Amino acid sequence: MRKIVLPLVLLALSLGACTRYFVGKPVKLQPIAISDTVTAPSSALSQTVDKYLKPYHDTLDAQMTAVLTTSPRRLTKGTPESELGNLMADLFREMGQERFGKPIDVAVTNNGGIRTDLPQGNITLGKVYEVMPFDNDLVVLTLSGTTMQKVVDYLAQRKEPQSGLKLVVDKATSKPKEVLIGGKPLNTEQTYTLITSDYMAMSSDLAPIVKNNKGYQALNYLMRDAMADYLRRKGKQGQSIDPKKDGRTTVVE
Question: Which of 37, 117, 127, 233 has its CA 20 to 30 A from that of 111?
Answer without folding.
Answer: 233
